[in-house]
Amino acid sequence: MPIPDLPASWAAARIALRLTAAGTELDPGPRIVHADTLGGVAILAAAIVPGTPPAPDVHTLERAAAHAPWMLATLHAITSTATLRAAAQELTIHHSTPQNRVTHAENVLGWPIRDPQGRFRLELALLLRRLYRHPPDIIGPMRVRIA
User: Fold this and answer.
1) Crossing angle, helix 84-91 and helix 97-109, to 10 degrees?
2) pLDDT tens, 32-84?
3) pTM of the predicted model as reported, rounded to 2 decimal places
4) Residue 77 — φ and ψ, nearest 5°?
């Protein structure tokens, strides 16, 4: 990569790092995020800076997580797979269990997650949650050393 492109590459890598998760029940999500696949999400991520108040849906998501230990992992599996059966496989649970969990989650969240708009809203809330949990100032300053 040409040296003049390094600062932009570093900034993109920092944004991708903010979107990663531990991959656990309490922090579900991708453990690796490639900056070149983010598209418009990178613009959104850059807008979330320290002091930006969390969106109401992030607070709602946190309250939902407190209701059941399986909540966040299930919600992530629902947004990252094509079907509830695939979500069940990812979670290694019986194929009928996600249906019950979705009903419970919708009641706790206060919006449907089975339709495209509700699913997008959920996916955006999960993404914003990761951004708020990993603000840019904890990643550290850019340091480039040219030998």
Assistant:
1) 100
2) 999 999 999 999 999 998 889 999 999 999 999 999 999 999 999 999 999 99
3) 0.86
4) -60, -35
Which option is the CATH number for 3-138: 1.10.287, 1.10.10, 3.40.50, 2.40.230?
A: 1.10.10
For the chain, the 3-state helix, strand and coil shares in percent, each to the nearest 5, are: 60, 0, 40
CA distance 20 to 72: 15
**C-alpha to C-alpha distance for 38 and 12, rounded to whole angstroms:** 9
Per residue in 9-37, pLDDT (tens digit) is 999 999 999 999 999 999 999 999 999 99
Q: Determine the Cα–Cα distance for residues 98 and 109; give it in Å rounded to an integer.
A: 15
Domain ranges across the chain: 3-138
